[in-house]
UniProtKB/TrEMBL annotation:
This is ITA2B protein. Pfam families: Integrin_A_Ig_2 (PF20805), Integrin_A_Ig_3 (PF20806). The lineage of its organism: Eukaryota, Metazoa, Chordata, Craniata, Vertebrata. It is a single-pass type I membrane protein. Keywords: Glycoprotein, Integrin, Membrane. GO terms for biological process: angiogenesis; cell adhesion mediated by integrin; cell-cell adhesion; cell-matrix adhesion; integrin-mediated signaling pathway. Residues 83-171 form the Integrin alpha third immunoglobulin-like domain. The keyword Glycoprotein applies. It is found in: Membrane. GO terms for cellular component: external side of plasma membrane; integrin complex.
Length: 172
């Protein structure tokens, strides 16, 4: 009828983590108890898509002892918010009207003004992420004309990168 806080104690039993809660002793015949438990579990990144709890009610009644148990499976849903930020250095570039592209040149300045595009992918949490794929499409041709001469692609941190074969075709 009333609400009481339970005193629960975590312990290890046979290599598993156990939380033991004392519901009452002695309990009146025919008593019904509803228990709401809130568990905080960390380190679920590698648990798959569900976690299973085994709940057991142990009674030491002298005429009829019992060990009723039930298994509860709870789905695990990871939550993480990703944010992509980007910059171009310099932010604005204007080619002089006298500039023209020099075919088959190996000099960098004959292919245009250098612009560096930097992209940062941030995990805003709360969960961790792995196996993220970022696909970035850069328009490098306008019809048959070179729009952007793609010189190189680099990464920072622990990531793998693959690129289009048209990267630095003149080996500048």
């Amino acid at each position: 009828q009333g609400q009481e806080k339970l005193s629960c104690n975590p312990k290890k039993e046979n290599g598993t983590h156990v939380v033991l809660c004392e519901l009452g002793n002695p309990m009146k015949a025919g008593a019904q108890i509803t228990v709401d438990m809130e568990l905080s579990v960390s380190g679920l990144e590698d648990m798959g898509d569900a976690i299973t709890f085994h709940l057991q009610l142990r009674s030491k009644n002298s005429p009829h002892p019992s060990n009723a148990s039930v298994t509860v499976t709870v789905p695990v849903e990871a939550e993480a918010e990703m944010e992509l930020r980007g910059n171009s250095l310099p932010a604005t570039t204007v080619l002089p009207t006298s500039w023209h592209w020099v075919e088959d040149s190996r000099r960098l300045e004959d292919h245009g003004i250098k612009v560096e595009h930097v992209y940062e992918l941030h995990n805003k949490g709360p969960g961790t992420v792995s196996g993220v794929t970022l696909s970035l499409a850069v328009p490098h041709l306008l019809g048959d004309h070179v729009l952007l001469y793609l010189l190189e692609l680099g990464t920072a941190g622990d990531m793998n990168c693959s690129h289009h074969p048209a990267l630095n075709p003149a080996q500048v």
